[in-house]
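WARN no homologs supplied; continuing
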Amino acid sequence: MTVLLNLAGALGLFLYGMKVMSDALSELAGRGLRTTLGELTSNRFKALSIGVFITCVIQSSSATTVMVVSFVNAGLLPLTGAIPVIMGANIGTTFTAWLIALLGFGVSMTAIAIPLMALGFALFSTPAGQARKWGGIIIGFGLLFIGLEFMKDAVPDLQNNPAVYAFIETVSGYGFFSTLLFLLIGTALTVGLQSSSATMAITIVAASQGWLPFEAAAAIILGENIGTTITANLAALVANANARRAALAHFFVNVIGVTWALLLLRPLIGLVNEMVIWGGGGSPLHDPAAIPLGLALFHSIFNILNVSLQIGFVTRLADLVTRIIQEKPQPGLEFVVPKYLTASAIKYPETAVDAFLKESRRLFNNALFESVAHSLSLSRRQIQSKDPFEPWLRQAGPIQPYDTQAHFLSRIEPLFEEMLRYSSEILANHDLSEDQDHQIQAIRLADRRMLDIVKNSAVLNMIATRATEERSPEFRQEMDSIRLMIAKLLRSLFELFSQDPELRTREAFKALRRDARFLDGKIFREADELIRSRKITPAEGATLINASSICKHMSRDLVKTARTLYSDFHSIPA
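OK structure emitted
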């Protein structure tokens, strides 16, 4: 019992040290790494190298994979760009094994770990800044190796435990079935500890103390490669379909790798044995002192070979997981329930800001679009088609009453409330850069303009439908001009959205606003002439001028909102 408690305590210290070091490294280099990750496109080898680099820096393949899932969920990374990053994380995580093998077993770290922690504590005690982050890294580094040393000391001598030795000999004597058993142990241990590094440390310590033969330890390491995929799949449960596909791709990459490695396990172990001996060490199959180096080498060779074999099939793998995990439409909830404002997206400032922007675009393109179109008695199909509006307007007749308030309360307000809550959470929980803070405020202003657009569309509908049977033909003709102006503006905006981001310039949006201002002046002059010629009443003239003014303000807000969401942030895909 004492042995188990000592092992558990040593493992806890190791895990805590790993977490402290990983968190501090992420905080120190996180923003730059995430920015680099977000800029990946279709270059799979660049994506692969970034995955290796990020995992080596933050010392956690799970953290890298969860970050990738978050970026895919937010739409910052395409699936074909995410899979090579995950493959790179598999290679990068082998750095931890080398760290443990070379420093934890190659040299005595205990003598320098405690003085290092004293230095780390001194740095950590400083006010918030770079020094404090470096202090966290040093403290975590020291705790990690102290925990590893305690773990080595806690493992009892196998020679004093003949019953355990006999049990291990028996379990290891069933050939391939024994290999499968140890693989399952590695998988279960990694899932339970939620850390492949901890499983690696336990395996290296146990094997170096003679508790595990090298082949059994290698099988546990293969199992750890399956167990580590569970973390990303758990993180993706609350994410969108694309993020779940990325997590599933991680699982497939590692399971495929473990499958071929099991079939070639003996040749792989033979290769590792020859390489360690060639490098001047003993045989890891017979010399316990050579086992840490042998296992680190086995881990690296397996992951490098696995990635080399699968990197050419990224597109096919992406197609496979896309067929397995398909989007599930939610009838009636497509506009009310947020699509991008997920828990995984808010973990990082970059993904949080991007999710907020995408949700605002979604509100603009769907619920707001419907509100304005229906207030004019037009449909989405009519506005987005290339057919002229005039025949439709003649066929549809005058504008019909539309309950804009009901549409607002059921389709717009719930989503707007969620967006406001989400943006407040971003501002409260993240240390945003100046640009990111500006983006949040600009998007919030655009969202507020959308509310003004809805209110103005309701007023315009009310004006256009009030006492229609008493209106003169000239009045209806002028109202149709206003209606036509907004319809053409909506069509022009959506045509602009479909163009390349470089074409969505501020000048292009300004040109759309000029048309609305020109119409306002034209309506004012024509209303005056119609009143003087007694073709419309002064009351109708006042109504037309009021409607034209509302049209001008709606056009201004539509263009400004569209420019904010699609031009000012053109680097983010629409």
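Residues 11 and 320 are 38 Å apart (CA to CA).
OK
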